[in-house]
Amino acid sequence: MTRATSSEARSRTSTHAPASRLVPYITARQGEQADSLSSLGLRPGGKGLFYLNEGPGDRDERGVLWARCSQSRHSNDIVGRPRWRDVHPSRQRECMEELRCQVCVQQPSRTQLGYLFLAAQQDTRSTDGWEGHLTAQPPLCLEHAKAAVEQCGYLVRAGTVALRARVPRLHGVIGTLYRTGANGRPEPVEFDSELARIPLPYRHRQWTPWFLASQLVRELRGVTVVDLDDLVSAAQEEQLP
């Protein structure tokens, strides 16, 4: 149930599927289970959630509690059939906090224009276009950005935009808001599916003590829309003798 360390992550292979389809490191696998809600308790005086056996890795640097989930591993490898619609909380958090490629956990593509992110055409809701775009998708290296565009069903259907962001600013978290239930135990607050996907900003400190996070969200600032094919072609030319 513990969060993986960076050294462990970088020693793993994130692809236990046919070579034709990569499995991102952050993708959840069959057999990985969320921790029981019985491990959650309430701080005295209405001060929010805590784990009954809480450890230092259970909260991020801003004090938000994170969902625990087992990791399906064999030796140092992530194994198990991919659950393509789900991400693993601690692996997603790791890649977003450290700004590492979500597929291989190595350094992502970065130039003077910033880190490389991918987004679906329909994802922007800002009047400024992609400036200030909120994303729970960690950056990518160039090789795996190209693979994602070709293999990710959602991106293929929706259309892909490649973005470089000079300042991928920490914004908040996606997860579950809790309250005190009738039995004095933590009880999740039910929202419709659309509201449940809206990130909780870190600045909303009246709610963060009651939140169990499952995904870290960054706000992309200093954004430039780029052509991924051009980036790949330029990288290939640089490798020529």
Structure description:
The protein is of the alpha+beta class. The chain has one domain. It has helices at residues 6-10, 89-98, 142-151, 153-158, 193-196, 228-239, and strands spanning 27-29, 40-42, 49-51, 65-66, 73-74, 77-78, 82-87, 110-111, 114-120, 133-135, 160-180, 186-188, 200-201, 211-226. The strands form four sheets. Strands 4, 8, 9, 10, 11, 12, 13 and 14 form an eight-stranded mixed beta sheet that branches. α3 packs across α6 (228-239). The radius of gyration is 19 Å and the shape is globular.
How many domains? The number is 1
Percent helix among the residues? 10-25%
Query: Which whole number gives the mean pLDDT?
Result: 89
Any low-confidence stretches, pLDDT <50, length ≥5? 1-19
Sheet/helix structural class: alpha+beta
Major beta sheet summary:
8 strands, mixed
User: What's the count of strands?
Assistant: 14
Count helical runs: 6
Query: What is the H-and-E element order?
Result: HEEEEEEEHEEEHHEEHEEH
What integer value in Å does the Rg equal? 19 Å
Termini gap: 48 Å
Q: Strand percentage, roughly?
A: 25-35%
Shape: globular
